[in-house]
Amino acid sequence: MQLLDSIKQKARKHKKTIVLPEGVEERTLKAADRIISEKIARIILLGNRDTIMKAAEAGGLEHISDARIIDPVSFEEKNEYAELLFDIRKHKGLTKEEALKLVEDPLYLATLLIKNGAADGEVAGAMNATGNVLRPAFQIVKTLPGISVVSGAFIMIMKDSRWGENGILVFADCAVHPDPDARELAEIAVMTGHTTRAIVGIEPRIAMLSFSTKGSASHPMVDKVIESTRLAREMEPDMQIDGELQADAAIVESVAKSKAPGSKIAGKANVLVFPSLETGNIAYKLVQRLAGAEAVGPVLQGMAAPINDLSRGCSVDDIVNLVAITVNQAAGK
Question: Does pTM surpass 0.90?
Answer without folding.
Answer: no
